[in-house]
Amino acid sequence: MTKHIQLVLLLALGAVYLAACCEPSPRKSQPIVITTTYSDSSVYDVFPTGLGTSATDSGYYPIYHIDVKNGGVESDTFTLLFSRQGLGFSISQFVPSGQTVTFKTPGPIKDTADITAQDIYRTFFVRSTDSINIKVMRPTLAVRYGGVYNGPEGCNSDPIQIPIDIDAFR
User: Fold this and answer.
1) Is 50 exceeded by the pLDDT of residue 19?
2) H/E element holding 137?
3) Non-local CB neighbours of 55 within 8 Å, separated by 6+ positions
4) pLDDT of residue 148
5) For residues 131 and 62, what is the distance between their CA atoms, to the nearest angstrom?
6) Contact criterion met (CB below 8 Å) for 93 and 78
7) How many CB atoms lie within 10 A of CB 167?
8) Contact indicator for 82, 141 with CB cutoff of 8 Å
9) Of 90, 115, 117, which is closest to residue 105 (Cα–Cα)?
10) What is the CA radius of gyration of the chain?
C-alpha cells in the first residue's frame, strides 16, 4: 500500500510542477503606424566604391520619419524593421501606452564600421533625391512588439511581427 501512496504523491507532485508552468499573458500594447505624418529627407555622402580602391562615389541616403502610436493599455518596446535587397536593420523605441513616437532611420555610417554594416546602408543609397521617397525606394517594413522575456527560466513569449504597407504612406 505504501507504493500506491508513493505513486499518488509522485503524480500529485508532477501535476503541481506542470501547473507551475506558465503561459505569459500577452502584452496589452498595439502599434498603430500613422501614415499621414510620414516624411523623408536625405543625407549626401561619399563612400569608397570598392574595397582596396581609392575611387569614390557619392549619392543620397533616405532618412525616414515614421510615427507609431501605442494604441494599447500597456507600455511596450516597438521595433521597426527595415530591409531592402535582402539586407536590413532595426530601430527599437520604448512607447508608453497612448503615446506616439517618431522612428527616424539613421543616415550613412562611418567608413570605419564593419563591411557588413556598410553594405546594409548602401542598399538604401540612391543617386538622386527624387528616389528617396518610401514608395519609390520600396523597402520592406514591419513592426515587432509584445514580446515578454523574464529570463531563461521565466515565463516568456515571442514577439508579434506585423508587416507595414508602404503604399499607405502619404
Assistant:
1) no
2) helix 134-137
3) 48, 49
4) 85
5) 9
6) yes
7) 10
8) yes
9) 90
10) 24
